Amino acid sequence: MKLKIGHYLFLLLAAAICNYANSYKIGILIPDISRSQLLFNQRMGEVLADAGHNITLIRLQTLENDGKGLKLSSRPTIDEWIINGFVEGVDYEWIKEKQAESAFNDESAWAFLSKEKRHLLSVWMKTFTDACEQMITDKEFMTKFEAAEFDVVFTHMYDFCPIGMQHLGKAKTWVWVNSGALMDYVAYYMGLPVPPSYAAPMMTDAHDSLTFYQRFKSILGHTLSPLFSKKMLADPQTEIFRKHFGSSFPHLTEIAKNAPLVFVNSNELYDLPRPTLHKIVNIGGLGMKAASSKPLPKEYSELIEKVESVVVFSFGSVANATLMPMEWKNAFMAAFSRFPKTQFFIRYEGSDIQAPKNVHFSHWLPQVDLLQHPKTRAFITHGGFNSLQEAILASKPIISIPLFGDQFRNGRIAEKHGFGIVLTKSELNENAIFKALEKVLTDSKYSEAVKIMNKMVLNKPISPETLLVKWTEFVAEFKTLENLKPMGASLDAITYYNLDVYAMVATVTAIILFVIWKIFKVVFCKIGSVFGFFNLSPTKNVKNSKKVD
Length: 549
Hints:
Blueprint: H1 2-21, E1 25-31, H2 35-50, E2 54-61, E3 78-84, H3 92-104, H4 115-136, H5 139-147, E4 152-156, H6 161-168, E5 174-178, H7 184-189, H8 212-245, H9 252-257, E6 261-264, E7 280-282, H10 298-305, E8 309-314, H11 326-336, E9 342-347, E10 359-362, H12 367-372, E11 376-381, H13 385-394, E12 398-400, H14 407-416, E13 420-422, H15 430-442, H16 444-458, H17 464-478, H18 493-496, H19 499-531, H20 538-548
């Protein structure tokens, strides 16, 4: 018996040693911008920690965040660092106020050309660059970061600073992370072909069936996106690194082009189909399990017991719903009052609305738990990618009211797949809200469509958790993965788009047409002079006219 116990202990010790030997040190650089960004990165860290790896969540506080003092993960095996990127003299409240105004204003696609918008954008981008300089000159942090000797570092796609940080910290390899669908400039630097005829820019209000005007905007957007990201972020941030670490520091876009892998918080089953690369790995829905939902607090469960159906309403963690126009607030309340047998749960922090009896306000919602409840019939959302995925996981149709960013595209994804209705800012009124609710609550096609999508996602041959773990371990072992890098990532714009070839063809064609025209002109003139079809002597005509006179 003692021998058996000793044998088992030996096996357990051996297994623990093997597990430790096969574990990697992984650092995840997280932009502390919104709760949704923190949540996605937290899920990545926890999945990798569960696979036996040593995880460090490194929160880069670029902008003010309500949860800045909150510990992301309760796992004792996950370490967390916080690096301060707040810059003195920056009016963060002004930035948030202007961002909120933009979220709830009905602006045209060309609003960014206005002087005010260009100024706001310039201040916003400069905030990232100033925060970058503050973080990379924090000697204590950078020394600690380099001493950690991470096997893999995950960098986020919001700006280029984390890419430079992992290079400066001498990470053995790294992965570029997108917390939503693939960013346009990331696709560009990866050398990914993007047909503008059906793959519209991520911030465009369109799916993959584009009108002529949408295709025009698509071409313009894909042309400007890499130029904008380079001028507003990559160039000034590169200068910051060169200022402090020498002029030989590589341009951040050159480092970006060599990203061994790209992780994308999306899923090919519900994202818009488009060309992709082997190095782009979709891990959408990561860590989102129906089994993870918890029993509802008493204040919610008691209200749900009294009604036939439930609708959840939230604009997410970035857009403050209290700042929406009063016309919207009145329209929502009037529309909701027309469904007395439905309970509406709304994330709302204000006290300026006279709510009907069937409306319950809360500063915070147990959103996932509410969506999973069998009485919940619909989800009114801004269309954030996490919200879209939570709705699919819960098999609940959505009414999307896009406010900014990729939310327009996300709403169109749900619309295309038949489980969502999009209400634009310009058409938001009581009648439009009522009709949209009536459709999703009474027409079974919406709930049936999302149930099919849910079943496909759950039965996907390879889970996002498996993809994350296996590809992370793979890149940790082989580092560069040069064999997955397309030549397009190394080409300049002229070569990539064959502009020199088109220019040569156009020039040769023009020369040939010019020569043909000259030949025809000479031939016709000769024929005309022989047969008298053309009178080419103006002098003779003058003399003849004088004789007639």
